């Protein structure tokens, strides 16, 4: 089908390779309906499921979802426990389908201090799907961008202290190679729902040249049409990467 192939090629060329989403507004979604916040999170998982399916179907290569920030520990204990339970249930219930759909799962964030059963499930999800070649689903869990950069800087400092690296050899590429996102291209598009216009410690280093789309809808209402609206907005943007002519993204880190 000659015509259709041409159209599909054109669409793929304008698709962002990596979409990252700050899933915000679960609590407000529930409050508006006089429901407990938990219900907003539960419905948020349904939106997450819809979004993974849609992204995979559309042909997005990398999808990062901000699921739990390092600051979210300050929420009431019951809410934190509920969110942890949701993640465990998600892995238990959805891992087989993700694997069957050729999705590769990566988890970014601090593993230290996570409850053992949860930490094991995250490792299981990564191991089972490691060889898959479809969508890479990156779950940012117990993640904080400043901590990630500080840890990377500490690793470089340790190499300098050990005499294996000279300070003048430190480059952005070298530092990027020490981040959780090594081997993952920088996000092209960052979406935040709920009308808030903040980055909230999410992919601080990696989103240096990302386009941002802020949507008014609350995360539990997010669906394929919302994703497509954000992709259309992205397509209309003029990305110059700090230059003036043909876009050339800055070099990515490729090794650990
Ligand atoms: C923001 O809404 C949402 C979160 C902090 C958690 C997002 C988590 C999920 C959607 C489900 C768990 C993840 C997985 C991987 C299954 P909010 O509570 O800050 O909403 P508000 O700003 O309206 O209060």
Give the CA-CA distance, first to last residue.
Answer: 42 Å
What is the CATH third-level topology name?
Undecaprenyl pyrophosphate synthetase
Q: Helical percent range?
A: 40-55%
Within the largest sheet, what's the order of strands? Answer: 3-4-2-1-5-6
Question: Your description of this structure?
Answer:
By secondary structure, the protein is an alpha/beta fold. It has helices spanning 2-14, 26-32, 37-58, 77-100, 116-129, 145-162, 172-176, 224-236, and strands at 18-22, 62-69, 104-108, 136-143, 189-192, 211-214. Helix 3 (37-58) packs parallel to helix 4 and helix 4 (77-100) runs parallel beside helix 5 (116-129). It has one domain (16-146, 185-236): Undecaprenyl pyrophosphate synthetase (3-Layer(aba) Sandwich), CATH 3.40.1180. The chain contains eight helices and six strands. Strands 3-4-2-1-5-6 form a six-stranded parallel beta sheet, sandwiched between helices. The relative contact order is 0.17. The chain starts with a helix and ends in a 20-residue tail after the last helix. It binds farnesyl diphosphate (FPP). Farnesyl diphosphate (FPP) binds at residues 23-28, 41, 44-45, 48, 67, 72, 83, 86-87, 90, 139.
